[in-house]
Amino acid sequence: MNMRHFRRDNKVDVLVVKSNNPKSTTIVSDDIRVLDDGVSPNLDDGGSDDGNGKFPPENGGNGDNGGEGEGNDDEEEGKEFGAIMKFEDVMRETEKYGAILPSDILEAAKSTGIRELILQRYLELQGAVGPLGFFMRHCGMLRNRMLADPAFLFKIGTEIVIDSCCATFAEVQKRGKDFWTEFELYLADLLVGVVVNVALVGMLAPYVRIGKRSTSAGFLGGFSRACCDLPSSVFEAERPGCRFSVKQRMASYLYTGVMQGAVGFGCGIFGQGIANLIMTAKRSIRKSDEDIPVPPLIKSAALWGAFLAISSNTRYQVINGLERVVEASPLAKNIPPVALAFTVGVRFANNVYGGMQFVDWARWSGVQ
Description:
The chain is α+β, with helices and mostly antiparallel strands. It is built from 13 helices and six strands. A four-stranded antiparallel beta sheet has the order 1-2-3-4, with no helix packed on it. Strands 5-6 form a two-stranded antiparallel ribbon. The radius of gyration is 31 Å and the shape is elongated.
């Protein structure tokens, strides 16, 4: 196929396309298309659009709704998080609060802009009195979770209070008359439980993804990016620009299970180690026939790791899914305390069951 360019009257560019068939000639100008001998108009355009601003399916786009899906996504995200603010608007709003943006948020404002609601939440929270304002300015993990879910700290506080109370009740019921002789074990479980609760709620909480993705090469770099692309929990809600496949959700369950197991093992080493030291010190001062054997340290830590990886991971994944359904309901959106009340209720039930289950696991394994 031969192509020649001509200029007519210095005004109109004309492209003459001749095929191997001498009878077939196509003349295309900026306002004229002449097709001879039934030449099809679907010429190979090398990946350009189809003339309607949409990419045909074979060129990697969706010919039916190529630009419509993205427009709907932007509109949906705009309803939830507000319009995208340009850098100048972001800085103007920041100056009103007398605040300084962290480097990652500042970089995002320069490159892509920031959603109005996200910026507003940050500016309000960073100015809070006390530890909250300090950690919002200097702790990205807390900041990003608070920006995605303002009830994040409420959920952690609820978890700690309920777990401490329910753990006490459950262990009194399960240990019975042996409660005071096993008090060191109860105290170790209680202290470690506080750390574990923070880890469990924090790992599964949704968070705002700010800043550029890692560009590290090699296996570790690819693995790190794959982990960052996973949802924080199996039932995390999708948002425009943040989509998760079924495989990613399944991988998230396994990934959080491994992470929680590691936290459980570490906390078990620390908590049980303290308990064992207390028990040994008491026996060195006064021995009693009612003294129970000092639990094995490594075996106890392994129990904590297995319990968190299997039981706690599964239960808290379900809780996050239930909270997501309730928080998205029209009733909770109109009456926010409904979602908070549901959080208290469902986490209360979970902690009663989980506390009793852990004592059973400890006895079945021979640790306690």
